[in-house]
Specification:
Length: 265
């Protein structure tokens, strides 16, 4: 389905009934990375998987996509779907957006699920690397961004045993439009530090990390989120890297299902 929000057409897929569960994908990916959750959780929730602006089948306007802009898009999407309050789940960049969403629209959040993400802003070198990548994508298209991400996204065991997953995540990244990749990189480069937001979170929160995530390591970022958010629960998924929902869908879905049922969201 497609709907007009904030001046752009946003594409989304939804399935199931029950507690609305908004799943926000990471960079440079699209809603298809949540397919295992659409398949595995639609009996327990109303699963809503948008393509963020610039990705998948949504429009990709030129410009900087701040985390607040993405949050505004999703808030408008919930209006269209007549969802008053949702459990908001974001992976990596999706987690940055989920924290921005909490800051702007806390009264629409029933619970938070933060997956393979971090609260901090970019260090200067990381910010510069994003600006360098923007230049590369301007010159060569999406391939440099896809090729740079691919070797770091998954757990070593996934690269060895699941060549099908490696190939399909590469294909997903390659098909994202340059304007979307550029808009997201520029937006992430200027995102604020969300550390002070964490103690303000008053809804049930689940933190899920792949044990072998090298982009946002569980030992540092996962523990930091779980320690700073009051009452948060941390689940570390073995044999998974940065895309824990995709690499180990049964374990990931079991953690989310338990959270939805037990944490009163
Ligand atoms: C992601 O997976 O969304 C990215 O690794 C986020 C980032 O580049 O900081």
């Amino acid at each position: 389905m497609k709907t007009l929000v904030n001046g752009i057409h946003l594409h989304y897929v939804q399935a199931g009934n029950g507690v609305p569960l908004l799943l926000i994908h990471g960079y440079p990916l699209d809603h298809t990375l949540w397919q295992p959750q659409v398949d595995g959780l639609a009996d327990a929730a109303r699963v809503i998987t948008p393509d963020l602006r610039g990705f998948g089948q949504s429009d990709a306007p030129e410009g900087v996509y701040t985390m607040e802009t993405y949050a505004d898009d999703l808030n408008a999407l919930l209006d269209v779907l007549q969802v008053e309050r949702a459990v908001v789940c974001g992976l990596s960049m999706g987690g940055y957006i989920a924290l921005a969403f909490w800051r702007k629209y806390a009264d629409r959040v029933r619970g938070l699920i933060l997956v393979d993400t971090r609260a901090g802003a970019d260090a200067p070198a990381a910010r510069q690397a994003r600006l360098d990548m923007v230049e590369q994508v301007k010159q060569h298209g999406s391939a440099p961004a896809a090729d740079a991400m691919l070797p770091r996204l998954l757990a070593p065991s996934t690269y060895q045993s699941r060549p099908d997953l490696v190939e399909s995540v590469h294909a997903v990244m390659l098909r994202q439009p340059p304007a979307g990749i550029i808009g997201a990189q520029l937006g992430m480069a200027e995102r604020p530090n969300s550390t002070a937001t964490l103690p303000t979170i008053t809804v049930p929160t689940l933190v899920v990390f792949g044990a072998e995530d090298v982009i946002t390591p569980a030992e540092t970022e996962g523990h930091n989120l779980a320690n700073e958010i009051p009452g948060a629960k941390l689940v570390i998924i073995p044999n998974a890297g940065h895309l824990s929902n995709w690499e180990q869908p049964e374990l990931f879905n079991a953690a989310v299902r338990e959270f939805l049922l037990a944490r009163d969201v």
